[in-house]
Amino acid sequence: MDLLPNPAPLASKLRNTLVRYHSIGDGEWRVAKKTKDATVWRKPSEEFSGYLYKAQGVVEDVTNRIVDHIRPGPYRLDWDSLMTSMDIMETFEENCCVMRYTTAGQLWNIIAPREFVDFSYTTSYEDGLLTCGISLDYGEVRPNFVRGFNHPCGWFCVPLKDSPGHSLLTGYIQTELRGMLPQSAVDTAMSSTLANFYSDLKKALKT
């Protein structure tokens, strides 16, 4: 088990990694799923043997309120159907923390419940915000859970220039679920989960 990292260099490295993902050309992505709320693309990850997913959709609300619903805090558990518990383990500054959370089983429990411990960082980006995270090998793994690992991931949320009450939300997710899983099941689950994330978030923001 690792000690907690120094937050400042980790936050800086994480932000730079996400900005680099955000500049990857359209030609490198392949569409994985398309719904009325979002489009999900994927490309092979540079971090592990799975995929880096990109999800994008327009959300009707202001940037700060959207990001408050996504980042660690009281809102997330209320609406994210995949997340079953969340605890803030350490807080470094207002925009920087370590959280432990658990996820529900998926695909008729082919994918069993997972536990993650993530370093989370929220910062400004252009006219909007970036909230990003990476898993840490920290804290005891609880029984009945497989410990998953999030490679650098995050959400860019920027206001639409011609429609200030709407924001463009773009996510980059690369989750190593670990455990004995068929890769095809993981890929199916990831695309659907990301598309559902947008529809669930939109419903939560309207309430």
Descriptive overview:
The protein is α+β, with helices and mostly antiparallel strands. The protein has a single domain (34-205), classed as 2-Layer Sandwich (Alpha-D-Glucose-1,6-Bisphosphate, Chain A, domain 4). 26% of the residues lie in helices and 41% in strands. The protein contains four helices and twelve strands. The strands form two sheets. Strands 1, 2, 3, 4, 5, 6, 7, 8, 10 and 11 form a ten-stranded mixed sheet that branches. β4 and β5 form a beta hairpin.
Let me know the number of strands.
12
- The helix/strand series, from N terminus to C terminus, equals HEEEHHEEEEEEEEEH
Contiguous low-pLDDT stretches (5 residues minimum) are none
Quaternary structure classification: single chain
How many angstroms does the end-to-end distance come to? 41 Å
The CATH H-level homologous superfamily: START domain
Q: Major sheet: size, sense and barrel closure?
A: 10 strands, mixed
Mean of the pLDDT scores?
A: 92
Count up the helices. 4
The rounded Rg comes to 16 Å
- Reported CATH architecture: 2-Layer Sandwich
The helical percent reads 25-40%
| Total count of domains | 1
Q: Structural class of the helix and strand makeup?
A: alpha+beta
Query: Which percent band covers the strand fraction?
Result: 35-45%
Shape: globular
Class, according to the CATH hierarchy?
Alpha Beta
CATH topology: Alpha-D-Glucose-1,6-Bisphosphate, Chain A, domain 4
Pfam family, one: START
Domain START: 10-207
GO molecular function, one term: cholesterol transfer activity
Protein name: STAR4 protein
